[in-house]
Amino acid sequence: MNKIDFDPAQLTFVKSSHSDGERACVEVARIPGGLGVAVRDSKDPDVRPQIYTAQEWAAFVAGVRAGEFDL
User: Fold this and answer.
1) Among 1, 15, 37, 39, which one has the highest count of C-beta atoms within 10 angstroms of its own C-beta?
2) Considering only CA atoms, which of 40, 43, 41 is closest in space to residue 22?
3) pLDDT, tens digit, for every residue of 16-64?
4) Mode of pairing for the β-strands spanning 26-31 and 50-53
5) Is residue 13 situated within a structural domain?
6) Helix or strand run (H / E) with residue 41
């Protein structure tokens, strides 16, 4: 992962629409300036999120859409 500087307090995290609100879920936030995406565990929001560049995130989403992670 590349180093991307940002203030985590300025991020707006969004929980998956598939979450029932009670289970642990992944939350995602766009980093300002289109630099990348921050990902965190909803049950532990105070832990610094994992950071992915825009290119890394695009590759992951493309893989999901292509079924690369289907079990």
Assistant:
1) 37
2) 43
3) 777 766 666 889 999 988 889 999 988 888 888 999 999 999 999 999 9
4) unpaired
5) yes
6) strand 36-41
**Short-list 67, 9, 66, CA closest to 38:** 9
Domain containing 48: what range?
8-65
**DSSP code for 18:** T
Split at pLDDT 50, 70, 90, the class of 1 is: very low
CA–CA gap between residue 4 and residue 49 (Å, rounded): 12
Residue tagged 């300036």 (tokens): 33
**Residue found by looking up tokens 């630099």 in the block:** 35
pLDDT of amino acid 2: 53
Residue 70 lies in a domain: no
